[in-house]
Design brief:
alpha/beta; Rossmann fold; Alpha-Beta Plaits; four-stranded antiparallel β-sheet; 11 helices
Length: 319
């Protein structure tokens, strides 16, 4: 698959050790020109470390990466000219204002003085921060500081734009605004790498998703392709008043349309076909066995189901 026929980023055995700890484990991956590629995984999975190597902030322990054909090891200066990154934690001087930070960034990116003033006003207005442009960074909320960090990328409009947890600390309306701006940036010619642990964000934004876990790519494909790899076309979850017995699980597994059964404390999750036919039989069996059914949920697979299927753990923690 190729979005626009070219490879924007190529990882070749990209590896990073911190002492003896293997943070990124020999990644091999191609990210296509003008696609939004989602890195989906929990904190500590290796997302940020991978991005910092691509942007030449960190040097790989082994392997390398190419950004539009340029080796990050051999020519890091050329790579940095093509790449812009919004860090997970905003990198702001606390005594500076959003206007000062973005104006300086615009000038570094090559804008003239008048052009810089114009583009900074446009971006701050779009981010609903024009009225707050003279506040010091230490006076801003966490969400507003995050907006300033992200705004740097939209000032630069780089060939490769990287967003590390772009909507962390951002309110719902702000998230949707940022998502639309990321799509617009892609449509104008940028390749986007989006690192996130938010399932919905990865689903709605990404052309393709790479699920990363313990420094490795566990699964790769479009969101729908990944969901389609889940055994069974439906997901059925039943909450009981107590944990199900081994005998009950075996009886459920014996149903012909059941593909997989997972037991999670007092919850049973089933991947199956024709849920509307199977559900009445399972409910009848549970009640005959003396269980009280507290909740029934039927749905299509999500990226969290994909993550669980390939890693054995849930990305979204149970409440």
């Amino acid at each position: 698959m190729s979005i626009n026929g070219g490879v924007a980023v190529k990882l070749v055995n990209l590896t990073k050790y911190y002492g003896k700890f293997l943070a990124v484990d020999h990644l091999n991956l191609e990210i296509y020109d003008r696609e939004i590629f989602g890195f989906l995984g929990p904190n500590g999975a290796g997302k940020s470390t991978t991005l910092l190597m691509i942007t030449t902030v960190l040097r790989p322990s082994e392997g390398t990466a190419y950004v539009y054909g340029v080796d990050i090891r051999k020519d890091p200066d050329r790579v940095r000219q093509m790449v812009g990154i919004a860090f997970q934690d905003p990198k702001l001087y606390w005594v500076h204002t959003p206007y000062e930070i973005l104006y300086w960034h615009a000038r570094v990116c090559g804008y003239s003085s008048s052009e810089a003033r114009q583009v900074v006003k446009e971006v701050l207005t779009r981010f609903d921060m024009w009225e707050a442009r003279r506040k010091r960074a230490f006076e801003l909320s966490g969400g507003m500081r995050k907006r300033v960090e992200i705004a740097k990328v939209f000032i630069q409009r780089p060939r490769l734009a990287i967003f590390d947890e772009p909507t962390a600390q951002i309110d719902v309306s702000g998230k949707h605004m940022i998502w639309e701006m990321i799509k617009e940036l892609r449509d104008e010619g940028s390749t986007i790498i989006l690192a996130t642990n938010e399932l919905y964000e990865a689903d709605v934004l990404s052309d393709r998703v790479g699920i990363i876990y313990k420094g490795r790519i566990a699964a790769l494909g479009t969101p729908q392709e990944l969901k389609d790899t889940i055994p069974g076309g439906d997901v059925l979850e039943i909450d009981l008043d107590r944990p199900p017995s081994d005998e009950v699980v075996r009886r459920i597994e014996a149903e012909p349309e059941i593909v997989e059964v997972r037991r999670m404390n007092q919850r049973i999750r089933m991947y199956l076909n024709r849920v509307e036919e199977v559900l009445p039989r399972i409910l009848a069996m549970l009640m005959e066995s003396g269980y009280r059914v507290k909740r029934v949920d039927m749905r299509e697979p999500t990226l969290d189901d994909v993550f669980l299927h390939y890693t054995g753990v849930k990305l979204v923690k149970e409440e």
